[in-house]
Amino acid sequence: MKGNVIVGQSGGPTAVINSSLAGVYRTAIDRGAKKVYGMRFGIQGLLDEQYVDLSKHIKNDLDVEILKRTPSAFLGTCRYKLPDIHENQDIYVKIFEILDKLNIECFIYIGGNDSMDTIKKLSDYAILMGKSQKFVGVPKTIDNDLALTDHTPGYGSAAKYIATSTKEVIRDGLGFSYKKKLVTIIEIMGRNAGWLTGASALSRGEDCDGPDLIYLPEVPFEIDRFVDRVRKLLEKKDVIVVAISEGIRTAEGKYISEFSAATDYVDAFGHKQLTGSASYLANVINQQVGCKARAVEFSTLQRSAAHLASRVDVNEAFMVGGAAVKAADEGDTGRMVVIDRVSDDPYQSATGIYDVHKIANGEKLVPREWINKEGTYVTEEFIDYVRPLIQGDSPCVMVGGIPRHLYMSSGRGKKGE
Questions:
Q1: What does the pLDDT read at residue 408?
Q2: Is 330 a domain residue?
Q3: Confidence (pTM)
Q4: Residue pair 336/138 in contact by the 8 Å Cβ criterion
Q5: How many Å apart are CA 288 and CA 384, to the nearest integer?
Q6: For residue 11, what is the DSSP state?
Q7: Which of 108, 155, 215, 282 is the most exposed place for a label (fewest CB within 10 A)?
């Protein structure tokens, strides 16, 4: 490698997003990069020439190991949609002026569907204008909805957190069940894909029945039928736990969260903020069934619980970061690294690389055959798919009894700081 590398993070973070950053940094240094720059707050920050020399923040191997176990986006993130080239070419001119000034050879972007759209547009512009920089995407999303990859880094750790927390919520409810009826509705992230909510089924085992009902956005949700199912379950048991995706919606396409006083906020990519589905349904159960009902939102804990990260997930996140640098150094551009499942028993995986045009703005949903006929639970095929991804622990570096994280000033700082 003759030039420099620049890396950015975009979209919602995960418990292992910084493991991918560590993989990029370590591999770039090993392959001879003179400098590895980090964009502060993704492509949006780069447009303001906000970037750092990562060698000033990652000083030794211990820092690399701590970074791998640090949640949130170490560099800062953004939700910024690049315009199409024909709509605003000035932005592209500015970006490439910055890349040329920094002698950037490889541009690596860690993110999900929307971030791969950025890689697609920048690589297309580079080819159109005869630029030499290479652009490669690193997959990242707890939603597990990127196409062509078996799964995405971040999903395994989120699934582990969801299964563990669901089991603990169930145990909590059982402790208050004497002569009382209780319905707990757990709201889990997932706009259109139910990969995260389905993972709640992993809480089921010899010591736990798991959730009684699981609802994913892949199947239309009927409120009246839901109430009837809960009422019938309460005839047999005192404590009911239901796991729902935040994005469940009616057959007409209306999100359940829209029945509540949900926000109308929409992000740069046109995504409506979803919240309040569990609270709304808990109120419905309380009023129509007449028993105590409570709502639990796992919220941002699903993507920030690095203390419960899967070792498989941490290692694979590091692996795909390194593979992206290797691919760019060897001439690939307009590509995204993917994870290929080699075997289930023992579980083994490897990296591949695919055209980002076939991935950007796509969405991988839970197969309908992995959801039961009634749309109220996932099948054993789903559980067999997820279980290998949550295996192993990745102990944090502990100081004073709590995890130590690698951190950077929350301010935007100076260019090249």
A1: 86
A2: yes
A3: 0.94
A4: yes
A5: 37
A6: S
A7: 282
User: Which residues, 6+ apart, have CB-to-CB distance to 351 below 8 Å?
Assistant: 319, 320, 323, 337, 338, 339, 340
Task: Give the pLDDT of residue 163.
Answer: 98
Burial environment of residue 97 by CB neighbours within 10 A (0 to 12, 13 to 18, 19 or more): exposed
184 belongs to a structural domain? yes
* pLDDT, tens digit, 9 for 90 and up, residues 389-416: 999 999 999 999 999 999 986 555 455 5
Question: Are 64 and 169 part of one and the same domain?
Answer: no
Closest to 82 measured CA to CA, from 43, 112, 110, 108: 43
Residue that has been written with the tokens 């191997």 in this structure: 61
- How big is the chain by its Cα radius of gyration, in Å? 22
Question: Domain for residue 296, yes or no?
Answer: yes
**Under a CB-based contact definition with an 8 Å cutoff, are residues 175 and 227 in contact?**
no
Q: How far, in Å, are 15, 28, 31, 104 from residue 3 at the CA level?
A: 30, 10, 11, 6
Number of domains in the chain: 2
User: pLDDT, tens digit, for every residue of 298-325?
Assistant: 999 999 999 999 999 999 999 999 999 9
Q: Phi and psi at residue 129, in whole multiples of 5°?
A: -100, 5
Check if 313 is active-site: no
Q: What is the pLDDT of residues 99-115, one digit of tens each?
A: 999 999 999 999 999 89
- Note whether residue 147 is domain-resident: no
pLDDT digits (tens, 9 = 90+) for 361-390: 889 999 999 999 999 999 999 999 999 999
| pLDDT on residue 361 | 82
For residue 113, what are the domain limits?
4-142+306-362+391-403
| Contact criterion met (CB below 8 Å) for 186 and 244 | yes
Amino acid at 98: I
Return the structure tokens found at 54. Answer: 């990562």
Return left, alpha or beta for 353; rule: phi > 0 is left, psi -120 to 50 is alpha, else beta: beta
- Cis before 346? omega within 30: yes
For residue 350 the two structure tokens come to 């490897």
- Of the residues 114, 117, 124, 143, only one is catalytic, namely 143
Dihedral (C-alpha) 40, 44, 50, 51: value to the nearest 10 degrees?
Answer: 50
Q: What is the pLDDT of residues 35-81, one digit of tens each?
A: 999 999 999 999 999 999 999 999 999 999 999 999 999 999 999 99
